[in-house]
Amino acid sequence: MQHATPAAPAVRETLERLLASQTFGRSERARKLLRYLVEREQAGEADRLKGFSIAMDVFGKDGDFDPSTDAVVRVQAGRLRELLQHYFANEGVAEPVRIAIPRGGYVPAYELNAIRLPDLKQDGAASADRPDDASVPDAALLATETPSPTPLVVRHLRFFWMAMVLVIAMLGILILRQGSSALLAGGDMSATIETAGTTGSIASSAMADALPQVYIGLKAEGAYANRVAASLRAGLSGFDTIDFIGRDAVADSDDDATSFIFDILPGAGTGDITIELQSVASGRVLLSRNLTPADSAPAAIEDRIADMLSSALPASGTIYNYIEQTSTPNGLTQCLLLNDKYYLDQNARTHETAYRCLEKLANGGTKSSLVYSELASLHLEAVSDHYAYPPNATIEKAVEFAHRGVQMGPTSPYAHRSYGYVSSRLGNTDEAIRWMRKAYELNPYDLGMAAAYGYGLIFAGRYAEGTPILDHAAETFSGHSTWWDYGVFVGEFMLGDMNKAIAASMALRTTATKSHYLAARLIGAKAAGQDHLVSTLLNQLTTEFPKFAADPRATFVERKYPADLTDRLVQALRAAGLGNPS
Question: Per-residue DSSP letters for 255-273?
Fold first, then answer.
């Protein structure tokens, strides 16, 4: 990271993108506080940024405000620091300017980002060509969590030798396997596959199934620290995307770019506990959470740790993002990153790249249930969206993959979630809910599993059961994916709480254009009396999604929305001026 001072226009542009991001989409207080701090500092009023003035200007406190008894400014500033850290580690990793609020004060600091990632505008343009019926939310239902994008970076020269070793290993494997059939279990795919250049380094060996190793380091004492450690240990043991090592990191892992440690440390305040996620090799702190005595109740500890782990451990999270920036991902790690990129930018090219990567691991005799779980979901995507690859995709083949995933990972949350996703597309609602509930129970610390279960209940018509689960997951996880907000909108809409439905629909404003998101925003804008926005959204839907605009009911029916939900959505859209009267 460079230390030159960024120009004021660059700071303002970064601020606006940050305020419009998904990370800050559901936190009005954080947006208001950040804008105030940056604008005051940029106006030359840094000396005004004290707790008392912030309390009055931002949080509406009066002259009787006492910072010794009212911690609103300290608490909100701590929350803001966490959101900034999450944003720049994930969704804003390629921002040219980074904004931070250093501890011990409230004056923003700015740094130029030395890591600039490739321009993906061309990829984005490709995704815009998808047909409208590919935009409905089922594709996102049980996808690997994707709060934020993590594009590939230029490989560092110091890892060149690693690539050479992998090439030599792959050549040896190809020689040994030449002429072998090596078909997938229960499948008919050729073992000889032309893969994209991004998957060429994958070797058929135990190394191909290797996942990031994660340790815990307990460096604080007392009952509170022990409870935090126990909760963290329980959470880590349930994630399929890492290899949790139940002992302290050892010296010979110091040069391993894929080893990480959660340090549990004494916090800055009396009775506080700080959890820091660090790279073992570099010592760099990637994520930090501070727990105060107010968070000491078991439920509060679980929520804070669930938020942290859901930010750090999925393929869209901090650990995988760090590996992608600083080393050469290979094997299963690389495939999970490519799979995540598909769900961020759903088009035929990203789908085929991810599919071929996982397929190659399966043909090589993978022992990971994750490979088959994600292949099942991608295969179903090929059926739904009519992708050319793999040829002749069928739901039955997706079922085979999902079944194999559960066989190989009987305690895998991802495998159970995948089977639930496939079951939902087969119309087996009760079976889908059963599998998704099991995934949720296998790892309650993965808020993505909770969201998938709540979402599944909602789209099974069980709104009163699913909405609180999904709403809690969305409130707990600051970096959640947009489809969670859509699910909350649907649930609250059907339960009749239009204030919450409107709030959820507004959170969809920063997403890629999708017909069902625009429809939710239109319904929310109509309910809120925002006539100008209603007109804008009607025009956008009619122009960009003429098929949906002409007959939204057909899309909802095709995607197996519950009948009462379909009727209510069509009625609300018609009241807003969209759709035919049939």
Answer: T-TTEEEEEEEE-SSTT-E
Which CATH number applies to 454-582: 2.30.30, 1.10.10, 1.25.40, 3.90.1530?
Answer: 1.25.40
What dotted CATH number matches 209-320? Answer: 3.40.50.11830
Distances (CA, A) of 419 to 336, 456, 457, 511: 18, 12, 15, 27
Cα dist from 135 to 81, 129, 386, 553, whole Å: 34, 11, 13, 14
pLDDT tens-place values along the chain, 582 residues long: 344 567 777 788 888 888 888 788 777 788 889 988 998 888 888 888 888 888 888 887 776 777 666 777 888 888 898 889 888 877 787 778 889 898 878 899 888 765 443 343 344 333 333 333 333 334 333 333 333 333 333 333 333 334 443 433 444 433 333 333 332 333 333 333 333 334 444 444 567 888 999 999 999 999 999 999 999 999 999 999 999 987 665 544 445 678 999 999 998 888 899 999 999 888 888 888 889 998 889 999 999 999 899 989 999 888 998 998 887 788 999 999 999 888 777 789 999 999 999 999 999 999 999 999 999 999 998 998 889 999 999 999 999 999 999 999 999 999 999 999 888 888 788 888 999 999 999 999 999 899 999 998 999 899 999 999 999 998 888 677 788 899 999 999 999 999 999 999 988 865 456 788 899 999 999 999 999 999 999 999 999 899 999 999 998 998 789 999 999 999 999 999 996 544
Residue limits of CATH 3.40.50.11830 in the chain = 209-320
Residues spanned by CATH 1.25.40.10 within the chain?
134-203+330-445
What is the torsional sign of CA 402, 408, 411, 413? negative
CATH number of the domain at 134-203+330-445, please? 1.25.40.10
Which of these, 169, 86, 155, 89, lies nearest to 118 by C-alpha position? 155
